[in-house]
Amino acid sequence: MDDAPLFQNARYPTPTRPLLGLTVLVVEDSRFASEAVRLLSLRSGARIRRADTIEAAERHLQIYRPSVLIVDIGLPDGDGTDLIHTAHMMRPRIPVILGTSGDDMAGDACRAAGADGFLPKPANALAQFQELILSHLPEDQRPMGPRIVNDTIVHPDRAAFRDDLAHATDLLCDGLDDEMLDYVAQFVTGLAHSAGDTPLRTAGEALTIARMRGQSCQSAVAQLAGLMQARLSAPIAV
Q1: Cα 130 from chain centroid?
Q2: Tens-digit pLDDT profile for residues 195-237
Q3: Angle, to 10 degrees, between the axis of helix 218-233 and the axis of helix 198-212?
Q4: Whole-angstrom Cα distance, residue 24 to residue 121?
Q5: Domains plus CATH for the chain?
Q6: DSSP for residue 153
């Protein structure tokens, strides 16, 4: 997605839109999580593009350099830290490279790979988002003068949450090898964490633990699938 037409007549950051003129590329497989970053970016004045795999992100980076790169760690085709390292080594380097994850412990791995900082999930606080990016921007790209600190919390569309659940359910129904089962477990756990859905997060973590211990996953998979189906079957609140 590219929202450039919204900002074609505005070039310089302002106190209310301190990221005006910047382009954010978010590499995120969850529509719900990427929708949160989209809302944060637009409210800050930045343009936003999304890639949902490492391969798609690499195609983006062959064509242009964003001002800010935000990379989720758990992606369907690999470890996001590998992409962070690749981006860190590019010349000219992207001004701000951030890792993101629902696992707060992932911050060290992101920085070791070359990230400037870490955006923990759920990423929904506008002030935190703006400050993290501005603190790593080169001095000559930061807005001059006082900046309005906005305590807005964004709320992604729940339809995106349902889309992510439908995607994970389809993967389970298709039959999974061990690698894909691990991916679904971490995907749903991260999604549930971002959405504040504790029972779903607990079920995702239970599947991950069963996999790590080499135990039978049949019960954990059934529990997770049942919770996802219940949420998909529930009417959307209007």
Answers
A1: 15
A2: 999 999 999 999 999 999 999 999 999 999 999 999 999 886 5
A3: 160
A4: 17
A5: 4-141 (3.40.50.2300), 158-233 (no CATH)
A6: B
